C-alpha cells in the first residue's frame, strides 16, 4: 500500500501467533478519519506499505504460548492503545497511555515496529498496531479486549476507536458537568460521540458546529440542541458562540483535526473556567493562541482514545451499548465489503457518511 493512492487488495501471509500473541479473524471494521489521514494527509510517508484499519472486532482464531486470558472463539476488539497493566503509565490512574504501545515511539510511521504480515516476501507494516482491513491480524494480548459473547461485532467494532474517543473526551477529559453549556466542533463519528458524552453528562445546551449542514440532523439524534455553520457567518465562530452564550461555553471539544479550529474552540470558551479539549488528529502544523486565553483561566487539554484505559473499558462500553446507555447503531450509515474499501474512503472524504462498516468475514 502506497500513500495518496487507492488501497489495493492483496493476498498476504499472516504469521501464526508467537508468545503472548493471538491471531484474530476480523469480522467487521469501521473506517475512521485517521485511516484517511495516514493515507492522504499526514506528512510522514515512511509508514508504508501497510495494512490500514484500526476500528475492528473479531474472533480469536488461535493463541500463542503464554496466552491465558483468551481462547479460540472469544469475541474481541483489537486496541490501538495497549494496556500492559505493568508500566508506570498503566499504574497511574491519570492516564491511559501504555509504554508497550506502538505509539510510545512511532507516531511518525503510525505503525508497530514488529510486523506480522508479508506480501510476496516483503514485510508489511501494521497500521496503529492493529490492521483491521484484513481477514486475519496478529496482536499481543496486552492490546486486545475480550468482550461479551453476544456482542454484535458489526456494531461494537466502532468501540475500537471513534466512539470511545469522542465520548470519553467529554466524560473523562473535559469532565462535562450537569447543566453546562458545550460546543462540539466537527460532527463525524468522533464529534457525534462527543455530543452523546455531553448529553449523558447532563449538559443543558450542546451547540453542534460543522461546515457541512447535512450533519446537523444526525447531531440532533445524539442530543445536540443548537447548530451553527461557521461558513454562514461573517464573524469569527468564537464571537458567534460568545454572543449565543453570554460570554462563551463551559466546554468545547475539537473533533476536526485542524489547528485553526483548535484555536477557535479555545477562544469560544468562557474565561475563568472554560475547558477546551483537542481530539482531532494532525501533525501537519503547530497550533497557536494568545497567552491571555490561558492566563484568563481557561484550560486547554488533549485526549487520546477518550482517556479510557483500553482493556478495562472497551468491555464496559460494549455492555453500555447492549444495555442501551450508549448508541452505536445510529453512527452506521453504510455497510460494505472489504472489496469496497475505496468507496468507503471516498464517502468519508466527501462527507457522505458518518461511519461505514466493512463486513470482512462471517462469524
Ligand atoms: P470525519 O471526517 O468523519 O469528521 C470530521 C468533521 O469535521 C466533518 O463532519 C467535517 O465536515 C467537519 N469539519 C471540517 N472542517 C471543519 C471546520 N472548519 N469547522 C467545523 N467542522 C469542520 O472524521 P472522524 O472520523 O469523526 O474523526 C475526527 C478527527 O478525530 C480526525 O482528525 C481524526 O483523525 C481524529 N481522531 C482522533 C483520535 C484520538 O484518539 N484523539 C481518535 C480517532 C480519530
Ligand atoms: Zn480512529
UniProtKB/TrEMBL annotation:
Tell me a GO cellular component: cytosol
What positions belong to coiled-coil segments? none
For whether the record's keyword set contains Metal-binding, the answer is yes
Cofactor(s) this protein cannot do without? Zn(2+)
The segment(s) forming the Enoyl reductase (ER) domain are 4-358
One Pfam assignment: ADH_N
Q: Which GO terms describe its molecular function?
A: S-(hydroxymethyl)glutathione dehydrogenase [NAD(P)+] activity; zinc ion binding
Instruction: Name a single GO biological process.
Output: formaldehyde catabolic process
Superkingdom: Eukaryota
Record's keyword terms, sorted: Metal-binding, NAD, Oxidoreductase, Zinc
Q: Which InterPro entries match?
A: ADH-like_C, ADH-like_N, ADH_Zn_CS, ER, GroES-like_sf, NAD(P)-bd_dom_sf
Family recorded in the similarity comment: Belongs to the zinc-containing alcohol dehydrogenase family.
Q: What is this protein called?
A: Enoyl reductase (ER) domain-containing protein
Amino acid at each position: 500500500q502506497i500513500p495518496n493512492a487507492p488501497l489495493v487488495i492483496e493476498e498476504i501471509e499472516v504469521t501464526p501467533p508467537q508468545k503472548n500473541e493471538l491471531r484474530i479473524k476480523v469480522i467487521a471494521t469501521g473506517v475512521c478519519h485517521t485511516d484517511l489521514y495516514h493515507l492522504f494527509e499526514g506528512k510522514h510517508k515512511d509508514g508504508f506499505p501497510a495494512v490500514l484499519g484500526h476500528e475492528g472486532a473479531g474472533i480469536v482464531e488461535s493463541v500463542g504460548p503464554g496466552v491465558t486470558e483468551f481462547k479460540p472463539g472469544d469475541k474481541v476488539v483489537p486496541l490501538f492503545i495497549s494496556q500492559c497493566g505493568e508500566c508506570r503509565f498503566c499504574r497511574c490512574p491519570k492516564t491511559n497511555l501504555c509504554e508497550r504501545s506502538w505509539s510510545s515511539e512511532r507516531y511518525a510511521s503510525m505503525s508497530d515496529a514488529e510486523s506480522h504480515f508479508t506480501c510476496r516476501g516483503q514485510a508489511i507494516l501494521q497500521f496503529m498496531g492493529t490492521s483491521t482491513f484484513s481477514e486475519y491480524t496478529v496482536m499481543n494480548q496486552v492490546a486486545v479486549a475480550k468482550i461479551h459473547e453476544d456482542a454484535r461485532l458489526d456494531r461494537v467494532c466502532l468501540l475500537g476507536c471513534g466512539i470511545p474517543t469522542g465520548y470519553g473526551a467529554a466524560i473523562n477529559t473535559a469532565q462535562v458537568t450537569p447543566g453546562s453549556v458545550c460546543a462540539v466542533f466537527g460532527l463525524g463519528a468522533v464529534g457525534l460521540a462527543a455530543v452523546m458524552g455531553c448529553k449523558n453528562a447532563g449538559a443543558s445546551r450542546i451547540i453542534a458546529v460543522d461546515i457541512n449542514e447535512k450533519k446537523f440532523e444526525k447531531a440532533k439524534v445524539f442530543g445536540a440542541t443548537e447548530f451553527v455553520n461557521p461558513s454562514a457567518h461573517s464573524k469569527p465562530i468564537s464571537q458567534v458562540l460568545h454572543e449565543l452564550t453570554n460570554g462563551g461555553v463551559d466546554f468545547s471539544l475539537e473533533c476536526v483535526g485542524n489547528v485553526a479550529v483548535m484555536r477557535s474552540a479555545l477562544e469560544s470558551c468562557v474565561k475563568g473556567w472554560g475547558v477546551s479539549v483537542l481530539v482531532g488528529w494532525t501533525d501537519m502544523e503547530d497550533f497557536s493562541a494568545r497567552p491571555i486565553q490561558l492566563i484568563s483561566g481557561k484550560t486547554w487539554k488533549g485526549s487520546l482514545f477518550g482517556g479510557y484505559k483500553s482493556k478495562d473499558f472497551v468491555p464496559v462500553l460494549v455492555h453500555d451499548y447492549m444495555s442501551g446507555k450508549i448508541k452505536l447503531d445510529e453512527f452506521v450509515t453504510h455497510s460494505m465489503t472489504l472489496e469496497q474499501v475505496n468507496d468507503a474512503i471516498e464517502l468519508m472524504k466527501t462527507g457522505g457518511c458518518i461511519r461505514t462498516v466493512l463486513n470482512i468475514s462471517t462469524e
